[in-house]
């Protein structure tokens, strides 16, 4: 036997001896028990650490990195129709509330204002004319009423003449057979009596006519004063209507100058000089960077202890962990994102798979911190809510 074969035979003898013991483990039997005990202790320690973390840290807060900056953006829409003659701002430009944004061509609106002013002046003059007509109607009615006593006096005089004529006729008629009165005298007395009776009827008709004229004149006065009686010129219906038209014309003129409705930054400016816009054209958007908030999309199994008013801390990928925003929970969305999607999920199928849903939680931020470190709509955030904080 060669020396190499003897070496191989010597190496195989210990392996054969180990196989004979029935032990194929690399670890010695004496060390196996301490190793198992150490592994068990490690598992217990890890479990205890996780339990302590869950009780003292994990159960006291919930967090998510599915959060984004949002805000109540203001869309700038003209309230009148016209051609743009000036645009005073550009995208990314900060603006203050009331600052000029753009102007529309205002020739038509200025003409409308002049026409409305003329109509107001005309309405005021018509009011004065109606007042004058009412005064004239009143004077005419007074004159008609003054004619009634005169008519009454004529009637009284006619009745007195009738009484005298009747006495003359009766006296002559009583002497008609005695020859003391001629037939001609009796005939004249009869004619005079008939004339006096006619005069009484005429005077009575004149009195009725005077009374009717007075009543008609008073009614004309009432009709003339119907629109102006008891009203100053500023309260007259025609004057108020004309003043309303003037106010509307001035409002349309003022609306040709479009100003910023809020403080913020101009975004999505889509209007150019020369463009014709209507009251449905969105010319630009203003983002209120000083009053932004965070919509944090928490899993539904994280929200059991979340309540409005609880404190929250938020960090932004824009600034990193060095800048921490402090805020509070102000409310929950009315539904999950899936519920309000264009095509909501239909789970009433046989192949349904449960998916953990997320519900948006709105977190208000500190305005002072926003001024110091401005954010922009759409930025990614990480939000953490302190469940132990009180409302």
Layout of strands and helices, then pairs:
Elements: H1 3-21, H2 29-56, E1 61-70, E2 74-76, E3 82-87, E4 94-95, E5 100-104, H3 107-174, H4 183-224, H5 237-254, E6 257-259, E7 264-267, E8 276-277, E9 284-287, E10 293-299, E11 311-316, E12 320-332, E13 358-365, H6 367-372, E14 380-386
Antiparallel strand pairs: 1-10, 1-14, 2-9, 3-5, 3-8, 4-7, 5-6, 7-9, 10-13, 11-12, 11-14, 12-13
Summing up helix and strand content along with how strands pair, one would put the structural category as: alpha+beta
Domains (count): 3
CATH architecture of the largest domain: Orthogonal Bundle
**Regions with pLDDT < 50 over 5+ consecutive residues?**
1-7, 12-23
What is the strand content? Answer: 15-25%
Provide the residue-averaged pLDDT. Answer: 83
Q: What is the N-to-C succession of helices and strands?
A: HHEEEEEHHHEEEEEEEEHE
Note the overall shape. elongated
Q: How far is the first residue's CA from the last residue's CA?
A: 92 Å
With helices defined by DSSP (H or I, 4 residues minimum), what is the helix count?
A: 6
């Amino acid at each position: 036997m060669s020396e190499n074969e003897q070496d191989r035979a010597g190496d195989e003898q210990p392996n054969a001896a180990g196989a004979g013991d029935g032990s194929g483990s690399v670890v010695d039997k004496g060390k196996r028990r301490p190793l198992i005990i150490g592994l068990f202790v490690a598992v217990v320690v890890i479990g205890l650490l996780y339990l302590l973390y869950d009780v003292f840290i994990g159960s006291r807060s919930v967090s998510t990195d599915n959060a984004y900056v949002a805000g109540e953006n203001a869309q700038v829409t003209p309230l009148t129709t016209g051609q743009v003659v000036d645009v005073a701002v550009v995208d990314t430009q900060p603006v203050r509330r009331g600052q000029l944004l753009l102007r529309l061509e205002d020739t038509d609106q200025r003409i409308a204002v002049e026409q409305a002013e003329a109509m107001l002046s005309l309405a005021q003059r018509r009011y004065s004319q109606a007042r004058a007509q009412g005064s004239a109607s009143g004077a005419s009615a007074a004159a008609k009423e003054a004619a009634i006593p005169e008519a009454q006096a004529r009637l009284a005089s006619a009745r007195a003449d009738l009484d005298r004529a009747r006495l003359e006729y009766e006296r002559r008629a009583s002497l008609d057979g005695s020859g003391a009165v001629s037939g001609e005298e009796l005939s004249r007395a009869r004619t005079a009596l008939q004339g006096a009776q006619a005069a009484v009827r005429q005077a009575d008709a004149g009195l009725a006519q005077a009374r009717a004229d007075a009543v008609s004149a008073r009614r004309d006065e009432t009709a003339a004063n119907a629109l102006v009686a008891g009203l100053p010129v500023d309260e007259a219906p025609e004057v108020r209507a004309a003043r309303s038209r003037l106010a509307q014309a001035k409002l349309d003129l003022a609306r040709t100058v479009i100003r910023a409705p809020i403080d913020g930054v101009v975004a999505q400016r889509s209007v150019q000089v020369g463009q014709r816009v209507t009251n449905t054209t969105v010319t630009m958007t203003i983002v209120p960077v000083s009053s932004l908030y965070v919509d944090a999309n928490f899993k539904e199994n994280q929200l059991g202890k979340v309540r409005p008013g609880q404190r929250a801390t938020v960090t932004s990928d824009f600034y990193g962990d060095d800048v921490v925003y402090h805020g509070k929970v102000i409310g929950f969305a009315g539904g999950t994102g899936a519920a309000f999607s264009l095509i909501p999920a239909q789970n009433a199928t046989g192949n349904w798979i449960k998916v953990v849903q997320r519900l948006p939680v709105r977190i208000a931020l500190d305005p002072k911190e926003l001024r110091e470190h401005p954010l922009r709509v759409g930025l990614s955030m990480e939000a953490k809510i302190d469940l132990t904080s009180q409302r």
